[in-house]
Amino acid sequence: MIDNKLLEQYNYDEFIPEKFEPWLNFEASPPLGQSGPDFPLWNLDNTETRLSDIWSQFTFTIVEFGSFT
Amino acid sequence: MNAIADRYSEQSVGSIFLYTNEAHPGEYYPHLTSMKQKARHAQDLREVLGVTRPILLDALDGACHRAYGSMPNMTWIFTKAGIPIYKSDWTDALSVENAIQYFLEVGKRRRSGERMSGFQVERIDFRTQDQEGFRRGLERNGPKAVREFYTAFDQS
To answer: Of 1.10.287, 1.10.3470, 3.40.30, 2.60.40, which CATH number belongs to B2-152?
Structure first.
C-alpha cells in the first residue's frame, strides 16, 4: 500500500530544517558487524534487483547514497 | 569515488551509487514524485556529473535509504555476506579508500595464515570543504536551491 504522506515527506519539496532534519538519522542506523537490512532496488532500465544481489557478487561492496542535488 | 571503483574493481571490490531523494530540490531538479522522474535525474547524474559506477534507484519512499540513516551523501561498505564493516555519514574518497585498503590488507593477512579477530573502532575523518563547488552545484539545481540552503544555514 502506498503511503502518500511518507512519499511527500521523504521527497520534501523545500530545503528547510522542518522538512530535512527529521531524516538525518545516522545515529540510529544499523550497527556494523551485523547483517545489514536488504531491500529491492531498480536499475535505470527499470529492472528490479536487490542490495543483496549486489553485495553477494564481491568481496567488498562500496555503496554511496546520494542524488543529483 | 569513480576512480576508487576503477582502481579496486579487479580485487573484487564492487561500487554502486544508490539514488535517494533530492537533498536540495530546485526549479531544474525538483523533488521527486515518480520513479520515472527519479530515473531521469539519475541519468543526468551519469551524463552531467559523470558518475560512471552503476546507479541503482531506491524505492520512491526511500525504504533502503531510510533504513540506513537517510543521510544525503553517506557511504557504506559491505562484505559479501551483507555485513556492513564501514559507515560514514558523509562521503569522502580518501576515507573510503583508506578503509578499503585496510580491509583488503586484512584479507591478505588472513590468507597468509594470520589469526585475526574483529573489533569496533570509531574515529573522526576530515574532508575538504569546497564551498565554491558546492554553490555551483546548488545553482545547477536552480535558484530556489541556492536560496533555501543559505537561508537554512543563515549564510550569504
So the answer is: 3.40.30
pLDDT at B156: 54
> Which residues of B are less than 8 Å from A5 in CB distance?
none
pLDDT digits (tens, 9 = 90+) for B39-60: 999 999 999 999 999 999 999 9
CA–CA min distance A5, chain B (Å): 10
Determine, yes or no, domain membership for A51. Answer: yes
A13 within some domain: yes
Q: Is the pLDDT of residue A1 over 90?
A: no
DSSP strand E in A1-69: where? 40-42, 48-50, 60-66
Distance in Å, alpha carbon of A27 to nearest chain B alpha carbon = 7
Cβ neighbours of A65 in B, within 8 Å = 18, 20, 65, 68, 71-76
Ranges of chain B with pLDDT below 70: 155-156
